[in-house]
Amino acid sequence: MARAFNFSAGPAMLPEAVMRKASAEFLDWNHAGMSVMEMSHRSKEYMSVAHKIEADLREVMAIPDNYKVLFLHGGASMQFSAIPLNLTQEGDTVDYFNTGVWSDKAIKEASRYVNVNIVTGGEADNPTEIPDVAEWSFSDDAKYIHLCTNETITGLEFQEDQLEHVFAQGKPVIADMSSNIMCRPIDVSRYAIIYAGAQKNIGPAGLSIMIIRDDLVGHAREITPTLLNWATYANNESMFNTPATYAWYLAGLVFEWLKANGGVEAIASVNQRKAQKLYDYIDNSPFYYNTIKPTQRSWMNVTFYLTNNELESEFVQASKAAGLLSLKGHKAFGGMRASIYNAMPEEGVDTLIAFMEQFAKTHA
Ligand SMILES: *Cc1c(COP(=O)(O)O)cnc(C)c1O
């Protein structure tokens, strides 16, 4: 069977070249006589894989030397608890943006441990825009500022000018980049911490990645569980206990694929084109519409509704039959969502647009 275009928000489509390479190495990796997933994480072979993966990630994202890269379990969600436990003491204050479901979850978790000041947002369940900087209120004594750069469910993404205003506060900035990491070049040195679950734009589920400035490791509260303490990972090459070895290896294949295809810069121009043409089509069709503020729309998660919402389930069924999978939107937001991460070929977006056009014609 041919591979379909899979628009799932996560776990999500992986590059075909990566899947083929993994498949070719599945039974016997590099003449080791076994699969990577059957190897001891402490073996020389696996350690060499792990070191290369970190080196490739550092190259792909141009990570400065004073940053550590941690490979973790527990998803991005586990870091919602780890962040306050590693960086604050009881009674401290922290600043959080509330721009959607994921930032809200981070806030709920942080609120168990510290005083959370909401910089902006939180009134509406699924905001469709990030308010103007004039409406933001930071607290003077915040230990850090947390934000989710791309709200995956709605497709709402922070833009450069707003991020500049965040950096200008002079506080450590912590970013949940689960759904837009590596979609374009960024200057890692502007952030204190970048973290992401792998299953959107990096690899399979089970692995998450943290890029963290050296000096932020080693301050965890006494009560912090060992596996939530970043020092545990930093001091043990992310191998204090058994890591998600196979997911880690697959992420490495994705980094190799990115490098071979011109890196993040090259993929960024493809991503921009993919998103632009899909939004252009939606905006110009009376049949579909998008509710996100046009200047803050995500490159990665494109949400849209059908003007006649009674046709939604038919749209989902027909798109599936046409080989366009997982387009149904998140239940919290409704409508449709096309997640078009790095691994989604431009052809997938072209095919989607052609399908939408055809569907609109036959249902006008
Ligand atoms: C998917 C997602 C998460 C949750 O990731 P898990 O790995 O399931 O914990 C957190 N933040 C964002 C922005 C996401 O898209």
Structure, described:
There is one protein chain. It is built from ten helices and 14 strands. The protein has 364 residues and is an alpha/beta fold. The protein folds into two domains: 5-16 and 263-362, Aspartate Aminotransferase, domain 1 (Alpha-Beta Complex), CATH 3.90.1150.10; 25-260, 3-Layer(aba) Sandwich (Aspartate Aminotransferase, domain 2), CATH 3.40.640. The strands form four sheets. Strands 2-10-9-8-5-3-4 form a seven-stranded mixed β-sheet. A three-stranded antiparallel β-sheet has the order 11-12-14, covered by helices on one side. Strand 6 (150-151) and strand 7 form a beta hairpin. Helix 1 packs across helix 7 (245-260). The longest helix is centred in the C-terminal third of the chain and has 22 residues, at 263-284. The mean pLDDT is 97. Bound molecules: pyridoxal-5'-phosphate (PLP).
What is shown here, in short?
This protein is α/β, with parallel strands linked by helices and 364 residues long.
Which labels suit this protein?
alpha/beta, Aspartate Aminotransferase, domain 1, Aspartate Aminotransferase, domain 2, 10 helices, binds pyridoxal-5'-phosphate
List the SSEs and their pairings:
Elements (H helix, E strand, L loop, with lengths): L4 E2 L9 H9 L19 H18 L5 E6 L2 H13 L5 E6 L2 H10 L4 E7 L23 E4 L1 E2 L4 E2 L2 H8 L5 E4 L16 E5 L10 E6 L16 H5 L10 H16 L2 H22 L3 E2 L11 E6 L5 H10 L2 E2 L10 E4 L6 H17 L2
Parallel strand pairs: 1-13, 3-4, 3-5, 5-8, 8-9
Antiparallel strand pairs: 2-10, 6-7, 9-10, 11-12, 12-14
Helix pairs in contact: 1-7, 2-7, 3-4, 8-10
The structure holds pyridoxal-5'-phosphate (PLP).
